[in-house]
Design goal:
Strand content: 15-25%
Number of helices: 6
Helix content: 10-25%
Bound molecules: zinc ion
Shape: elongated
Largest sheet: 4 strands, antiparallel
Number of strands: 10
Length: about 280
């Protein structure tokens, strides 16, 4: 799933290309794409795109009176629509602009979770942004320490919870834990001030690395290409210490970690056995 760096760089790309262009029409192609009834997307017709921004893992297309909030979820993409065909492959929704160009929201796979919300007024006060935590890229140590204490849980789950901190997903959770040399299963309430310092720095470094990579591309990267030390590197040597990157597998995601760097050599096993461990 695209996370903060991918969404941020993509927002910048779309902003550079489409800002100040008036919207002609919005067409939901799949009936599940548009998640809101009022206001209607026609409230933005004839209005110029003020900017494309980001909040958490959402893209914001701000037309002044109304904002389109787009969540790409796992397989969604929002790209310039060169062909503008009647039935585009994986097509979910299309924004057609007055200059003849268009943006197409696609979603590969069968989950059909990507979506568009049209909101009037402050998008922060309404679904799907209402209740999101502070942005991961700007969080400071004291705020993070408070959040850690307020939400006693496993660190990996904490980092992925958008209502606690917004913008990180599976890749960044794995990378941040590794960079901070903390166990993904560490209890957040037990982390001390030094841990919070390492964690804050790790969050910022990992996000900045992702941003630097992503800003160098013409289009959003795929997960396998993103810079990572442990994510998608299971079975490979840890770039820090040479130990084998291990995993704990869950139905919907994989926790990747280095035992030497993060758990004092302890191999984690949680309701499952890693296929890479004998
Ligand atoms: Zn290591």
């Amino acid at each position: 799933m695209p996370e903060l760096p991918e969404i941020q760089a993509h927002a910048e790309r779309l902003d550079a290309s489409f800002a100040s262009t008036a919207l002609e029409r919005f067409t939901p192609i799949a009936f599940t794409a548009l998640k809101t009834a009022t206001p209607g997307p026609d409230a933005a017709y004839g209005k110029e795109l003020v900017f494309v921004g980001r909040r958490g893992k959402h893209l914001l297309l701000d037309f002044g009176e109304v904002t389109f909030v787009v969540h790409l979820m796992q397989g969604g993409r929002l790209k310039p629509d060169e062909k503008q065909s009647a039935k585009p492959r994986f097509g979910q929704a299309r924004w057609r602009f007055a200059d003849g160009r268009a943006l197409l929201l696609t979603e590969a796979g069968t989950e059909r979770k990507a979506g568009v919300w049209v909101v009037a007024g402050d998008p922060e006060e309404q679904a799907p942004l209402l209740g999101l935590g502070p942005e991961a890229d700007t969080i400071d140590k004291s705020s993070l320490r408070q959040l850690l204490q307020d939400h006693p849980m496993r660190l990996h789950g904490f980092l992925r919870d958008q209502h606690i901190i917004a913008g990180m997903g599976r890749l960044l959770a794995n990378e941040v834990c590794h960079r901070a040399r903390l166990s993904p299963f560490a209890n957040t309430a037990k982390l001390d001030s030094d841990d919070a310092t390492q964690l804050t720095e790790a969050i910022h470094v990992c996000i900045n690395e992702g941003l630097a990579f992503e800003r160098g591309l013409d289009a959003m990267s795929s997960s396998a290409d993103r810079p990572a030390h442990v994510h998608n590197r299971i079975g490979e040597p840890c770039p820090e210490c040479g130990d084998t990157v291990r995993s704990v597998e869950y139905t919907r995601y994989t926790v990747a970690y280095c035992a030497t760097c993060q758990t004092g050599g302890k191999v984690l096993a949680d309701n499952t056995t890693s296929k890479f461990l004998k």
